[in-house]
Amino acid sequence: AIAESLSKDLPYTLSPDDVFLTVGCTQAIEVIISVLAGRPGANVLLPRPGYPYYETCASFSKLKVRHFDLLPDKGWEVDLAGVEKLADENTMAMVIINPGNPCGNVFSYEHLKQVAETAKKLGIMVIADE
């Protein structure tokens, strides 16, 4: 039922195998970090400032962390040029938190589109904590 509901706004159909449910955000963070840490040498890009639990989970999983800045003079948007400089062949994903925690910002549709385009260019996933 969830896959069917989520497929309504997509140009393709999700299957039940595309949906993974957790009991809350904490478990979701733990699961995705542990999956990413399964690749030796992998790293993840985290926002600065950001929600500290991502870094805590990454340290327990031995997943390397790199921080990209949020730009206060641009409404706390992601520094996409900084993301491109940080990413390398071992970068698996970047995290965005929207609405922002702790900044309280809400990304515009246009900025989210730019984030997605940057991630696609780099060949990394976006973990959207919303």
Detailed description of the structure:
This protein is of the alpha/beta class and 130 residues long. The chain has one domain: Aspartate Aminotransferase, domain 2 (3-Layer(aba) Sandwich), CATH 3.40.640. 37% of the residues lie in helices and 22% in strands. The chain contains five helices and five strands. Strands 3-2-1-4-5 form a five-stranded mixed sheet, with helices on both faces. Helix 2 packs parallel to helix 3. The longest helix is centred in the C-terminal third of the chain and has 14 residues. The model has no long low-confidence stretch (mean pLDDT 95).
Question: How would you describe this structure in keywords?
Answer:
130 residues; alpha/beta; Aspartate Aminotransferase, domain 2; 5 helices; 37% helix; 22% strand; L-tyrosine-2-oxoglutarate transaminase activity; PyrdxlP-dep_Trfase_major
Query: From the alpha-carbon coordinates, what is the Rg to the nearest angstrom?
Result: 15 Å
N- to C-terminal distance: 21 Å
Report the CATH architecture: 3-Layer(aba) Sandwich
CATH homologous superfamily heading: Type I PLP-dependent aspartate aminotransferase-like (Major domain)
Q: Provide a count of the helices.
A: 5
Tell me the overall shape. Answer: globular
- CATH class membership: Alpha Beta
Beta-strand segment tally: 5
Helix and strand sequence:
HHEHEEHEHE
